[in-house]
Amino acid sequence: KRRMAEPYKIKAVEPLTMLTYEERKEALKQAGFNTFLIDSADVYIDLLTDSGTSAMSDRQWGALMVGDEAYAGSKSWKKLEAAVREIYGYKYILPTHQGRGAENILSQLKIKPGDYVPGNMYFTTTRAHQELNGATFVDIIINEAHDSSIELPFKGNVDLQKLSNLIQNVGPERIPYVCVAITVNMAGGQPVSMQNLREVYELCHRYGIDVMFDATRCVENAYFIKEREAGYSNHKIKDILKEMLSYSDGCTMSGKKDCLVNIGGFLAMNDEDLYARSRELVVVYEGMPSYGGMSGRDMEAMAQGIYESIDDHYISHRIEQVRYLGQQLIDADVPIVRPVGGHAVYLDAKQFLPHLQQEEFPAQALAAALYLDSGVRAMERGIISAGRNKETGEHNKPRLELVRLTIPRRVYTNSHMDVVADSVISLFEKRNQISGLRMDYEPPTLRFFNARFSPL
Ligand SMILES: CC1=C(O)/C(=C\N=C(/Cc2ccc(O)c(F)c2)C(=O)O)C(COP(=O)(O)O)=CN1
Asked: In angstroms, rounded to a whole number, what is the distance separating the alpha carbons of residues 175 and 163?
């Protein structure tokens, strides 16, 4: 099999800064050992997130010049609406500034206090909006998703028995919708199979319950179906995506991931009444239904990004690059979430640092150690991100204590992946020198963004 290169060449570059070890040590101290608080200028390879960090194409940059900044009825909105209709297949689209803008509106429209919203593993902003509107999130992902070492092709799948039990226990009228994330971020970027999507949709519709996708990384999910599910190997990504989304009544979308833009999102739906009500709410939170918190040029860039995101060469390279990094760590016996996810390689900090208790924040400590070692910035996705139980006030203690190495789209080359792998492997070899952290400042909500730590 011939080796493949990036399906693009570089037209503009952003010079990177390379701090010394001492400078990184000082930067980390100033940031309270929290990678969210490190200045971008002090980061060498930024793997904090794939959200809003992708590179735009020359076609997208060119589209900015024809952005229609009309307050109402923008031509750019018409283009974005047409792109979403064509590629995602939903009838009605409401623009929002980013994913949580859509989550806010959907949750306010669909949830009443005392409701239950089942989903395949939690996500921080998604659960926050559900709880803000009085719902209880119920995890209905398959058990294997909580075990980093189990290799399954579709670890993001919904456990239909858990869903069915919840429907029996609380009744369908207490379930405003089921939220299916495709792929599942907190499980390690794990996909959901087409068969599972179909079965969830059929089960829910037997009880009149809507299915709303979190479609943030749905193109990556389509690639895994093409690669791993019988009968799809010679389907085009565009067709697999359309079939996936046909098993939902709508979706929230953060355009900052698969749509290849730095800002943008939407709420899509097939129900006209929900759309009419969402148009009233969007003016309160996002702006007119014809721009939803985006400028005309942002909408042009997102429309073009949607078409580029389903290019088979693009998505194949994107997934293979993440796998290229993951495979180097697997070959060095570094514990990571298996199989390698769509947008990130997740280090299993519990297995990486077995000498640390979870209350010593292993994932936070490992992310800090990685930055100190090489200037690579990663994100804690463990006990700190999980926050505190709203009833007991105790730390939520997730089984997965992970450090996410998140790969932006079309930004880094495989040489950067090699540098990251070398740094992680070097840390692994001296892992028993990595000490735990204490939390010196704990914000009341979504604490991981601003918490501050110091070494134990
Ligand atoms: C599956 C899903 C997301 O991944 C997602 C965002 N993701 C981010 C940014 C982020 C969000 C919350 C954090 O605790 C976090 F530390 C990082 C990320 O890095 O992964 C949103 C929300 O979309 P918005 O960011 O466009 O509003 C909805 N659904």
From this structure: 10
